[in-house]
Amino acid sequence: MAEFHNRTRRSSSITGKLLRSGRLLELPVYWLLRTSDLAREGFENSGSYRFADHIYRGQPSGSYGIGRWLDQRILRMRAVESFRSRFLMARDELCNFLQERSKGHASLDVLSVPCGIPREFVAAVEQFRKAGGVTTGIRFHVLDLDDDVLRQAETFTGRHGIPLIAHHGDALDMSTYGGEFDFITSTGLGEFLDDEQLATLYAAFHRILRPGGVMVTSAMRCLRFSDYLLRLAELHVRYRSADDLAAMARRAGFLRLATSTDRQGIQGFLKATK
């Protein structure tokens, strides 16, 4: 059975876990945080696509008035603003790619793995179209292990005139892809993979990319308070630098590598060209 790598929670009840471990002083913090829609989603559904998309949208919501206020404060946290930067990176890199490649190619295939709500597709296409770009001949693909996510992705992009080709399956299984691509964006998965799994993922991407194809991805470094919140929600992520990603991509066979970091210095980005 394929594994949802971002579903790292093991306790049936976080409240029960805190009680059993004698961490009674953390209970009020936990219940206060639950009034924030973002925090509650993190607690209830581990590293879900809704959690990420809430950050990407940047629109606070919550319960009892205080929840929305708290949600807004969480969205303004340095680590959360940094988290949003990976969506902005994927948007900008995809837009730049379309501007550079669309004129010289009759068709292009773009893939998001895992897709979640592919907000970067919509945002990049909006920028591309505003600059005079035409998406005829560009095929947008999404891959996810969750059928419900794929349906929501298709509904979301469909409202913006972007039809999707959906692939259902595990990103680590080569048989899932069934084709070749020119551009791959992958954020929010590598943080939940060990080094061997991440190497397998990069090898798969290298194999399915056409010559000159581009992969963009991200990693994050540890901040004490944000790490505490992640551990409270039982989100067990693996911290890496952009240079760590570059070294793994080089071993997978990528020829040109470019790394960068967000302005907070938390998210590291890799652009790897085959």
Helix content: 40-55%
Largest sheet: 7 strands, mixed
> Strand order of the main beta sheet, please?
3-2-1-4-5-7-6
Task: Using the 3D structure, state the CATH architecture of the largest domain.
Answer: 3-Layer(aba) Sandwich
Shape: globular
Architecture blueprint of SSEs:
Elements: H1 14-20, H2 26-33, H3 37-45, H4 49-57, H5 66-75, H6 78-101, E1 108-112, H7 119-130, E2 138-144, H8 147-158, E3 164-168, E4 181-186, H9 195-208, E5 209-220, H10 224-232, H11 242-252, E6 256-261, E7 267-273
Parallel strand pairs: 1-2, 1-4, 2-3, 4-5
Antiparallel strand pairs: 5-7, 6-7
Helix pairs in contact: 3-4, 6-7, 9-11
Condensed summary:
With 274 residues, the chain is α/β, with parallel strands linked by helices.
Which characteristics define this entry?
11 helices, 46% helix, 2 domains, 7 strands, 274 residues, alpha/beta, 7-stranded mixed β-sheet
Description of the molecule:
- With 274 residues, the chain is α/β, with parallel strands linked by helices.
- It folds into two domains: 14-76, no CATH class; 79-273, Vaccinia Virus protein VP39 (Rossmann fold, 3-Layer(aba) Sandwich), CATH 3.40.50.
- Helix content is 46%, strand content 18%.
- It is built from eleven helices and seven strands.
- Strands 3-2-1-4-5-7-6 form a seven-stranded mixed sheet, sandwiched between helices.
- A hairpin with a 5-residue loop joins strand 6 and strand 7.
- The longest helix has 24 residues, at 78-101.
- The protein is globular and about 60 Å long.
- It starts with 13 loop residues before the first helix and ends with a strand.
